[in-house]
Amino acid sequence: MTLVDIIFHHGGDWIRKSHILYSKKLVHSWEGYDSDLISFIDLVNEYTGELMYIGVQQLIVNGSSSNYYEVVDDSGIRQLLSLISDEFKCLNFYAVDKCELSVNVPNIVHYFDSHPSLTEVGTDCSEVECESESDNDSEGDEVGYDSKELQTIAYQKNREIDVGLQNYKELYKGMSFKDIPEARKCINLYSLANKKDLKQEKSDKERLRYKCVPGCPFVVLIFGDGNLPGVRIKTLNPEHACGEVFDNSRVDYHTIALYFKKKLQDNPMYKIKEMRADIKNVFNTNVSYGKCKRAKREILEKLEGSFIDGYNKLEAYANELRESNPGSDVIINLSKDALAPSVRRFLRMYICFHTLKMGFKEGLRPFIGLDGTFLKGKAKGQLLIVVGLDYNNQTYHLAWAIVDKETKRTWNWFLELLQRSLDLKEGKGITFMSDMQKGLIQAVHTVFPESNHRYCVKHIEANWCKK
């Protein structure tokens, strides 16, 4: 999951002269939004619903520079999402209202295919300034559309960090980076991948210079070009006349964190000693316990932030479910700690969609299966689930819940909500099947005193085999 900031620009004016310009007025934002949930229709609805547009004729996006691209459907959204990286996480959207004239900008989907001569664009210009600029240009003039920004972002996106850092083994003249810090990260990963202890000779906001050990001809100089965004390798001698090193000063804890980021996201229990052994086995490089410890802490702190952001969005998620699925039951419980000022702590959540309720009432057998399982990862907890059986003996999901623990209290809470959702009353004529979960049997007898209960044979056999 990648979190992005989405900025909706509105209230400004499109200036359609030889240069297309937008005078920015107001902004509306979604901060820390899950990029996997972005859809074309949601963005359009935000303009028509929240920002009171009559209708969206064109949806337009740009990056940190003034280059605009039109997004016409979800294929355009997918193209934009393919460019998202650690350096490109703020998406600026603009809309052309249905009552306005259209804007001539390129379709983002066609970006990778070809680059025809297109119109130059700009922002933050008053109408008077724009008109005076256009007076100096001939009416039909067009200039080449500068796509350097997206080229740089696309290349950085493709430079993935794999096990052996294969994408970082080579440098070449003209290689571009977003800025000096990004270039420094790349050089450090190059140093790790090639087992070379490069020495930094110059470092400031505009330039980076590295050499290898005395007697080695390797040298790289990186600085910016005023005519293009970002920085580039201007001088490079890629040849080495030195051996591999075991202790590498370029491999700091930030570099280790970059290398292990995905692995620790997938498995937060990955041990520090395993990190050290992994780097030694792959790169024959020695890193200290302290560096690995700091790297792991850095990754997990960022990961924890994403967990917190996810929980902060639960209420909005619940409201969206209720709005898009009328008649559905979506319940969130907060812990008692939430009674303290400014404290909100998640405890339990229950979901039963309206269509699932109707399906049970209109065509399912009077048979319900109950089970629970542990949730792994940082958040932990228990997933409780209830399923039905249709007349083809196929499993039919009815409802589910996330709870802190599996106890009689939580099963009571879950079954009482299920009773209300499916209108089961005292459970007469209903058969429940389950394993011998903690507190479940008592909860079934308490909430549905007239129901029948049977044990799952598969679980009985498994329990006997254990004994």
From TrEMBL:
Residues 173-220 form the Transposase MuDR plant domain. One of its GO terms (molecular function) is transposase activity. Residues 3-94 form the PB1-like domain. GO terms for biological process: DNA transposition. It comes from the Eukaryota. Keywords: DNA recombination, DNA-binding, Transposition. It holds the Pfam family PB1-like. The keyword DNA-binding applies. Residues 368-462 form the MULE transposase domain. PROSITE patterns: TRANSPOSASE_MUTATOR. The keyword ATP-binding does not apply. This is Uncharacterized protein LOC104210973. It comes from Nicotiana sylvestris (Wood tobacco).
